[in-house]
Amino acid sequence: MIVGIIGDTQLPFTHPGYLAFVQDTFTSFRVNQIVHIGDVVDEHALSFYEHNPNGKSAEDESAQAKADVKKWTKAFPRARVCIGNHDARHYRTARRAGIPDRFIKGYKDVWETPRWDWQMEHDIDGVLYEHGTGSSGKDAAFNRAVAQRCSVVMGHIHSFAGVKYHANPFSRIFGLNVGCGLDIRLYAFEYAKMTVHRPVLGCGIVVDGDVGLFVPMPCSKGEKYHRGRFK
User: What is the distance between the alpha carbons of residues 219 and 198, in angstroms, rounded to a whole number?
Assistant: First the structure.
């Protein structure tokens, strides 16, 4: 099985060329299983942290995100989704207000993704796919793999991407961070504009549960997926 992994999209704040890049990459590798590693949507307006008061309202942002999700479900009708910390913001907001989960729509209903399987984690060919909430650092996926003693694929860490292997006399495993598809120019990421590190755009490929690959997105000036080539 060849699994294609979509990085954090945090719709509607995604790089305009990211969908085309992911489609082209998955076609090139002949992917036959899709995983979205989580943070499908951003829900910036629902953040508990400081957010831009000049941005869209929660309703306007969610409406735009929903329209963008539709483009992704058209491209990838079936997918497994790892629920990310941003995806869960509306649940956390409701809980903070004392509203039980049974009064809140599920992810499939909220974003109209009937054939996307939303779970905290997925196991495919012995590889654990999870968003990575609570993890940090450039070796987050690798450290998780060593702790679990199985290969792990994660997102969440925007500024680092790649794969790292570990072996002992009994097994070989890898930790793969698949990067993201964010557009750093947009107001939702204003908090990070003065940091040294920038998001690493790309996606992941896992072949037969044994080989993990990070595929960087060529999006600098003059490259195929530069934002200037997309409306």
Answer: 13
